[in-house]
Amino acid sequence: MKKKTIISIVVLLVVVLGIFGITKFAGAEGNNEGETIVVTHELGETTVNKNPKRIVVFDYGILDSLDKLGVEGIVGVVQSGLPEHLSKFASEDYSNIGSLKEPDMEKIFELTPDLIIISGRQADYYEELSKIAPTIHLGVKNENYLESFTENMNILGEIFGKEKAVEKELTTIDEAVEKLNAKVTEKGVNGLIALANDGSFSVYGAESRFGIIHNSFGVIPVDETIEASTHGQKASFEYIVEKNPQYLFVIDRAAIAGGTTSAKELFENELMAKTDAYKNGNIVYLNPSIWYTATGGFTSTMMMVEEIDNAIK
């Protein structure tokens, strides 16, 4: 009896330890509970728990990517100005955390987040937000959009255990960009980028926030001397007539920030009628919700590729 009892106990222990081992393995490879990583970003280094349960997201591009990856746990977002493909986050299932430039610090504190993700518009609040929860800056860089975008997506993949899904999405985008670049290069397309702001406008070059059109999509800049500035370089219609681009790509800031004059009203005039872009129907009004506020996401980046691809005849 004693021998049988001892054997039974040993068998029971083996079973229990086996179950525990499997459970521990699943935790390590699945949820990565208790693991941390150090994220190096534009504003410093931040230790982040893997698979955080409560996430506050300011950047629409990052929100776009987290949604695409099926990440759960988003509790707070900026609900004003959400692009159409992220409209579900305007519901009461998510808390409004202020505006893109003015975080609601009290609301964010109440949400007890495990991770806060910001980009350029919230950079000034980094230190204050870091006192509430680990905060990382994942904005894309103007001079090398695709490179910094890829870095950001890989960081998300590592934090949330979505490395394979991230790799798949990045491959799809890389292939689409390569195909577009080949098409544009073959045609030798040149162009100019303009941001309309109610009754005035600025132009942007290859090193600007919209520089992906030149640097990655292959559109030749008609002016390589445009200053690299967040707000662009002020310009006139006479300037556009002089440069005479084949394509004019226009982002309407007034459609996002408010104004009385639309981009189309601004650019449909007698001077513009002298340009090749106007004559050939190549003034392209880009989706301002994507290009002005929601760059840097899987869906938004693909939409950017598709808009330019559809515009190039």
From TrEMBL:
- Write the protein's name: Siderophore ABC transporter substrate-binding protein
Any Pfam family hit: Peripla_BP_2
Subcellular localization(s) per the UniProt record = Cell envelope
Q: Which UniProt keywords apply?
A: Signal, Transport
Domain of life from the UniProt record: Bacteria
The organism encoding this protein is Clostridium saudiense
Chief location category:
other
* Domain Fe/B12 periplasmic-binding per the UniProt entry, residue ranges: 54-313
Q: Which Gene3D superfamilies match?
A: Nitrogenase molybdenum iron protein domain
Signal peptide residue numbers: none
Family the entry assigns: Belongs to the bacterial solute-binding protein 8 family.
> InterPro entries under this entry?
ABC_transptr_periplasmic_BD (IPR002491), Bact_iron-sidero_bind (IPR051313), FatB (IPR033870)
